[in-house]
Amino acid sequence: MATRYDRAITVFSPDGHLFQVEYAQEAVKKGSTAVGIRGTDIVVLGVEKKSVAKLQEERTVRKICTLDDHVCMAFAGLTADARIVINRARVECQSHRLTVEDPVTVEYITRHIATLKQRYTQSNGRRPFGISALIVGFDCDGTPRLYQTDPSGTYHAWKANAIGRSAKTVREFLEKNYTDEAIATDNESIKLAIKALLEVVQSGGKNIELAVIRRNQPLKLLESKEIETLVTEIEKEKEDEAEKKKQKKST
Amino acid sequence: MATFFGEVLSVYSRAVEEDDDDLDDENEDERIHREIEEKREVHIVWCPEVAQSLEDSGSNTLQCSDLIIAVGTNAAGFLSAYVLNTESWDAVGHVSLWNERSRGSSRQSIAPLPGEPACLFYRHRDNPAVLVCQSTCYIAEDQLFQWTEKVFGCLQKRGLSVMVLSDSPVAEYKTPDYLYGSAVPFLRSLKSSASKGQALCPALEQPNILTGLPAAVLSHCQVHQIPAVLYQCYTDVISPDSITMETYKPALLCLSKLVKLEPCLSADVLRKFAIITEAQSNLYT
């Protein structure tokens, strides 16, 4: 009888479920796909662009946001919840800088966000945040990091991950294709992110938005022309692969 | 009753008797019930040609070989986009009813405006035995029996075959396995025992049940041994949506045998019938 344990989120069901948290995870699946890749000298965030209404300012509809110069995140789920979480994270980043005179580590800010989310799964009258986030950046010592949080307040480090609608398909693609050679160069890492998104995005490159952080450099949003060029490269590589296979079969 | 002193007293009966006052109250109650019943009555309003054909036939019934009923906005949208988009369909009637969720127009003769929740009938010009009914308004439980009796009362039972398309939220689909996002939307079917032939999708598993108009129609067909097949589409979207509408495509196989359909539908036409809530809804990013 799931329905009796839905109402107050501080209540466990007899078999140990927190249904509101699980339902919040369903809300995450209603957001479009976001993928994060940790390369050797670069971290990449790719998102499926939402279709924007004609009269809407496109640049105000963003799935990728900076939290600090060296950390940024992409989210999937409820837009308004994301705004609140991002604001709190940004304040914490600056507060940390002022207090200890060091920029936050990616793990620290992820832990802060995850703790905030967990608090909302343990108070009455409040519902969990309906977002999952992919947080990427570089620590002071130059190590690239990728973390993922979810509405329950758990966080884990990943080499590559995806959230949102069709995340499962993208994750399976990444499990097959994330190899050391696939992330050998920056360009290859970016292409891997695009390839992963192309698995699930309709109508190709123009619905993809990509952001990269390189060591000691701020966030860079790739222009659509650059993305189109990369998509064309990828498609050409695919065709060449298919040609080679055909030739192999015929010989 | 005999008293202690031997006199006999008449005793008042303790059975409740109806006084003049009570009578008025009862009448008032009856009056109120009658008014409510009249208000909730289901009326079918046919166009003049069809009303004439009904009169001309001795039994006040229409000859109908196939009745296709769409219940819900996605099912109705699918029919509008794939079947009713050619010029060969005439609107021949509508059902006028009132309930708390469906405040139909108080004057029955006014046809519902396009886009309003309503229950409309269409007939194919070249094959007048094919009737389509699009029901997007809510029909209360107490009105379902009336609706079914009145609609089927206008149709000849002989040779009649019914197809129902209906929407349902996937949250009401009970299954022991977890449904991954890619599986939704999907179709399940249910048939009356008079229906021969294969359904185009798996049958609805237990313990899932049908409710509302589709259930009333299927029950009626089962009782009266009319071959009927129902396709229930489980979807996770509340508003009309093109992907959900496309899930009904297998039904086109049966429909194409009855009437000529548009061979190939452009995505634009489909989008016209789906409310473009995706772009305007900023709830999820």
TrEMBL record, chain A:
Keyword terms, alphabetized: Coiled coil, Cytoplasm, Nucleus, Proteasome
Top-level lineage group: Eukaryota
Signal peptide feature range: none
Coiled coil: 224-251
Organism of derivation: Oncorhynchus kisutch
GO cellular component labels: cytosol; nucleus; proteasome core complex, alpha-subunit complex
GO annotation terms (biological process): ubiquitin-dependent protein catabolic process
PROSITE patterns: PROTEASOME_ALPHA_1, PROTEASOME_ALPHA_2
Upper taxonomic lineage: Eukaryota, Metazoa, Chordata, Craniata, Vertebrata
InterPro entries cross-referenced by the UniProt entry: Ntn_hydrolases_N, Proteasome_alpha, Proteasome_alpha-type, Proteasome_asu_N, Proteasome_sua/b
Quaternary state and interactors: The 26S proteasome consists of a 20S proteasome core and two 19S regulatory subunits.
Oxidoreductase in keyword set: no
Similarity comment: family membership: Belongs to the peptidase T1A family.
Residues in Proteasome alpha-type subunits domain copies: 5-27
UniProt subcellular location: Cytoplasm; Nucleus
Principal subcellular localization: cytoplasm
Listed name of the protein: Proteasome subunit alpha type
Pfam families: Proteasome, Proteasome_A_N
From TrEMBL, chain B:
Family named by the database record: Belongs to the PSMG1 family.
GO BP: any one term: proteasome core complex assembly
Protein name: Proteasome assembly chaperone 1
Family matches, as InterPro entries: Proteasome_assmbl_chp_1
Keywords for this protein: Chaperone
Gene Ontology molecular function terms on file: proteasome binding
The organism's place on the tree of life at top rank: Eukaryota
Pfam families per UniProt: PAC1
Lineage per the UniProt record: Eukaryota, Metazoa, Chordata, Craniata, Vertebrata
PANTHER family: PROTEASOME ASSEMBLY CHAPERONE 1
One Gene Ontology CC term in the entry: endoplasmic reticulum
